[in-house]
Amino acid sequence: MNTTYDIVVIGAGIVGAAIARELSGHQLAVALLDARDDVGDGTSKANTAILHTGFDAKPGTLESAMVSRGYTLLSEYARHTGIPVEHTGAILVAWDDEQLDALPGLRDKAEANGYRHCEIIGAAEVYQQIPHLGDGALGGLTVPDESIICTWTVNLALATDAVNRGTTLLRGYRVETVDIGTEFTTLHTSAGPVTTRWVVNAAGLGADVIDARFGFDRFTVTPRRGELIVYDKLARALVDKIVLPVPTARGKGVLVSPTIYGNVMLGPTSEDLQDRTATATSEAGFEFLLDKGRRLMPELLDEEVTATYSGLRAAIDHGDYLIAADAPKRYLLLGGIRSTGLTAGMAIAEYTLGELRSAGLELVPGGELPDPPRMPNLGEAFTRPYQDAERIAADPAYGKIVCFCERVTAGELRDACRSTIPPADLDGLRRRTRVMNGRCQGFFCGAEVQAVVDTLSPVPVTVQPERIRQ
Ligand SMILES: Cc1cc2nc3c(=O)[nH]c(=O)nc-3n(C[C@H](O)[C@H](O)[C@H](O)COP(=O)(O)OP(=O)(O)OC[C@H]3O[C@@H](n4cnc5c(N)ncnc54)[C@H](O)[C@@H]3O)c2cc1C
Predict the structure, then answer these.
(1) Continuous H helices in 232-372
(2) What's the helix, strand, coil split of the chain in %, to 5?
(3) What pairs with residue 51 in β-bridges?
(4) With bands split at pLDDT 50, 70 and 90, how would you rate the model's confidence at 252?
């Protein structure tokens, strides 16, 4: 394998995958490298999966520009690739006079961010649109274009597209130390050295550590944990819009939202930690969310909980994204892409290429590109293979359900195992198919799923001891 590249992107989350995809449309030898055994196994797998309009971003920031542009780019890309998106819309609910008074300011802020579709509505209208909302709402602000999306498919589509365009994907390569030479930089990784002219640091929670290896001391990542509760699909009838709180300085607050898989979620919490691996959920987080949920939508608490999970935002001591190129070191940092990176990722990639070009990277278009990949549909609102008589007639494997909670078929498991980027374990298979993501969480179907993949898989597929569910 070629181990000398023109450019290496560290981190195969949504941001890194989007950047590798953009770069590989040019005459460059590109590698996308991640410490983990799969793409999208960091923060990009465990978020609230909302495609944000950016209505509440801080106007004038890079984040505001990236979220707004990212919304457009990702919506368009989703149409081409089949990434499921539901344009549910959102209502931001005011529960006291102070919050009610804040609504006009929030509408003005949305307009300053270029989003002009917010409307202030009275309590009666709020209850008409969200009939199961708890008592006491005084009014609301509509955000008709906020949408729900599948974060797993976004990451996988971008990474698959990058590989189809010629990117070399290196999984299981943890960057440990760095040697910067006059022409080449050597990344010493857990899987051996990788040599490259340029480096893009999209390492999320690990971005400050890599940045220090390049000789900088300019920011610290604080993992900000967000815990969420996922309710059963029977709860879906309670809410078909995203119910948002009035945001505070600490973030967007606790919301209730339908999920693209047909469930309802409550969360996230916001808790600063030291441990960058602390993705377990906690009793305190659960209690906090139940307390919020009791006020927001009491009937939701009568529903069964399917799963809980948490993700870590890469918060930094800087009020905006920190994207900076260093020409002498042929290096670019992406820091602090904390709570909007799913939406903004494709715009960040576009912006990054501009910064790299300004820093001296030659970007010569690479000619005709392959079509974007057509991704398997994981969205509950769209036709799934088990519902598609024609598809089943052509290939009976799509009629053989293996996971009954999520209606996942043997055909989908086979396709995932034979795809451009096959899963490295059952959790990766879950992110590609929804298998074991439902009520039983694999209790009923786990053994059969393992048996099916054992007959298919080109790589060893094993259950990880600690699964992070979404
Ligand atoms: C609770 C929560 C809710 C959120 N909700 C939303 C939302 O609704 N909408 C939205 O747009 N955004 C949301 N976000 C933000 C979004 O998930 C992130 O901004 C985005 O996933 C960041 O992607 P990334 O590629 O920067 O990071 P990651 O996905 O974390 O990828 C970084 C990668 O770098 C790798 N890495 C780290 N160190 C090294 C190393 N030394 N060597 C090699 N590889 C390394 C990691 O293994 C990881 O795979 C939310 C985040 C959280 C936590």
Answers:
(1) 283-296, 341-358
(2) 35, 25, 40
(3) 147
(4) confident
Angle at 431 between CA 26 and CA 17, to 5 degrees: 15
The preferred substitution site among 47, 210, 309, 333 for testing ligand 1, maximizing ligand atoms within 8 Å of CB, is 47
3-state class of 67 per DSSP? helix
| pLDDT at 2 > cutoff 90 | no
Residue pair 204/41 in contact (Cβ under 8 Å)? The answer is no
The closest alpha carbon to 83, from 314, 351, 354, 379, belongs to: 379
Domain total of the chain: 3
Nearest by Cα to 38 from 169, 210, 207: 169
pLDDT in tens, 314-325: 999 999 999 999
| Pairing assessment for the beta strands 264-267 and 221-231 based on DSSP bridges | antiparallel
Query: Which of 296, 313, 330 is at the close of a domain?
Result: 313
The DSSP bridge pattern shows strands 255-258 and 305-316 to be unpaired
Q: Which ligand 1 atom lies nearest to the CA of residue 210?
A: 41
Q: pTM (2 decimals)?
A: 0.96
Q: Which range of residues forms the domain containing residue 444?
A: 385-456
* Residue 127 CB contacts under 8 Å (≥ 6 apart), including other chains: 133, 137
Contact 212, 335 (CB under 8 A): no
ω into 131 cis (within 30 of 0)? no
Residue 465 counted as domain residue: no
Average pLDDT over residues 286-295: 95
Residue 466 has pLDDT above 50, yes or no: no
Residues 293 and 343 placed together within one structural domain of the fold? no
SS3 167: coil
Q: Which residues' Cβ are closer than 6 Å to ligand 1?
A: 10-16, 33-36, 41-44, 47-50, 52, 174-175, 202-206, 210, 226, 268, 311-313, 337-343
Q: Which of 286, 313, 340 is the last residue of a domain?
A: 313
**Is residue 466, in this structure, part of any structural domain at all?**
no
DSSP 365: B
